[in-house]
Amino acid sequence: MRSLILSAALRYSPERLGLILVDFKGSAGLGPLAELPHTLSLLSDFDVAAVRRALEFLRADVNRRELDLRNLGVNSYHDYLRLCASTGEIPQYPEVVIVVDEFRMLVESMPDAMTELMRIATIGRSLGIHLLLATQRPQGSISQDIRANIATNICLRVASAQDSYNLLGHEKAAHISASSPGAGYVSLPDGRILAFRAPLVDALPQQHADFQQMYRWETPGWVPLNKTPSVQQVPAEGEDKLLTRAVHSIRDLYLSSHKSPAFVDHSEQNSSSVTYTCARYTPIPQALPENFPLTRTLLDTSLHQILGSDGARRRGYLLGTVEIPQYGKRQPIRLDLEAHPGALAVLGTVSERTAITNALIAQAIERKNPVYVFTSDAGYHRRLHSYADSLAVLVGPHEPQHLRFCLEKIRSSHHSADQSAQQPLLICDGVDGWLEMLMRDPQAESYLYDVLAQSHREGYQVVFTSALPLRGRFNSVAYSTLLSRRFVESDLLRKSSKSYPLPNATHFAIEGGLNTTLVGDVPLEASTLCPVVTSCKNIIELQSGNSDFSCDKSLSLRQFPRTFPMPQLETIVMWHRGYNAQGTHILCGYSRTGTPSFLQAKEGVFIPVVGSRASGKTHFLSALRMINPHLGALYINGNTPPDAQKIRQMCESVQDPEKTLILIDDLAYIPAAAQQVLLELGPRFRAVWVAYTPWARWHSSPILTALSGCSRAVLLAPASISDGDICSLHEIPRDMYTEGMLPAGRGALVDAGRVQAFQVPDEVYQSTHDAVQAYQE
């Protein structure tokens, strides 16, 4: 077989001859021939899935050849060659020889595969596809179907006369001497049987003939005309090394003398495995790798592929390489709303699915697209938290309130793709976990469904994941679905289907719309994806060459930071002049986005400040003095409560009450008579702030009784709506939390039915005297 293949390789160029080598003995026999430029594929592992994949690609190649030849108006491969010769074109399809060493193993272990191989050979004979089958024991392995489709038999020395008779019709092959390796008989299609001796290609030729020495007569005697040759020694190398040397010689011959672009040298790309393949024709591609790690080079290539010739950004995220053997398809695939209008579901374990989502996140950050990540897995949230500054928002399993806030905003944002050149990436990781958490909040579950099902219409690329099959309407929300091997194996219907491609441990099966864009509406259960992956750590490391990889946060959904510093005096003055030119509002702190939070307060109004212990009431009253430097303050501490007479004296001694705030702390400890005085004199002042911790008999307080049902209030760290009984509160702001917690100084401003979350500044940098002077200046 080796000499036959090498002879054919020397006779025909790779445009005319292609080899598909099948060696189930670990490529010991045919492996060295894989480096021939004619070799299209080498199948060396006896793996059922690999054999099935190769046969599907071969069947697709036969169908493609048949269609292309029909379109060219020819009926056979020989007519196709004549057509190419007449037009001067290089044949697109070489003549393919499928070489199977020890095909008995295929017959015994995979009879269906052998049957399919014979069917391919039968149909492909007129299309330039041929079979070369070899076995040591022909008895029982050559079926009637094989015998009917094999026109030429080659029989070397065999052990039994019966084997010789079955192949040749006589017993001569059984009597060949063991001292004559390579001797045999060939039975030709015309019935002739010829004896032959195959050359030995495992060693260099040796001199066996007697040397004839020639002389001429010269005085004083005979002089030799030629020199006695030295004895040629066979190098002390193994047979495979000598064969490899011969293969390299043939390869180098074609590479040095052939000018056609049919050869591609991959030696620089993969130094450990030098292969030469036909660039235009590869009926059986190499097996997909485990995955494609997202490198800086791949990231740059991906970005380049989505840029138009004018430099304008196009939408899309590289997902990986998809393979559909039965249709001969293998190509990169990317998520693109124009081609794939809908959500992508990734079903698998956390480690399987997050490797894909990490790669998508890295691409989105590289393109400065907003990234919204909602994950119900605490571990994934913890790993991403270090890189949260590069995300538009990151929500974890302990933050269901902020999840609902984000869903409401995205659902009503109308962030249309037509209005932005970007394609925001929205990843909802662990939808099964979120649905379990939201069982008692059907409204939030409905918002989640709407975001997954409809956000692509507003320009979001939606990707959601799950470890379990989704229930109800969520089961059909995805436009396309990726399924890991474990997920497929856990599904009885998919696992038992013979036509369903079982992916490798690191690959995914693709179902749905992604396949339609590849093969149209033809029947297809699933294709196979080799994904682009990366780790959480590499998300930012990949951006090392990018000086600015901050994403667009025009639709800010970020959570509150834990603290806000006290703004500089210049900032405070600017805020008041810009937002409070009429002086009708009082600055209370920061909003979630870092803008000032004002509360409207007419003169003489009483404003309750409600909060539990350690919620930051005292700090809030102190901060009010600093962030409103144009107003004075009269501080009344309930821990050392003055009597009614003392309070009257304090209030009447204030020179400009209309520019002064009364700040009352711990109202519960102030006597009722003193509270009555405050109710009497308070309307003279700019505003009266009343801080207290709710107690059971708060209705006994004259001030709180008067404030019951008020329209303006400050609620610090409210746990529920009941904490706002003093005012007209309908709901607590859902964006008030930081990682599911309410730190001290976090609260809600209730202003005539409108509720806004805010944070009290943390530190005080200026004295009250300096602040007032600066504001007046």
UniProtKB/TrEMBL annotation:
The terms under GO molecular function for this entry are: ATP binding; DNA binding
Superkingdom is Bacteria
Q: Which PROSITE patterns match?
A: FTSK
The answer on whether this UniProt entry bears the keyword Nucleotide-binding reads yes
Alphabetized UniProt keyword annotations? ATP-binding, Nucleotide-binding
Tell me the ranges covered by the FtsK domain, including all copies.
1-165
Asked if the record carries the keyword ATP-binding, the reply is: yes
Under the heading InterPro entries, the entry gives: FtsK/SpoIIIE/SftA, FtsK_dom, P-loop_NTPase
Q: What is this protein called?
A: DNA translocase FtsK
Gene name on record? essC_1
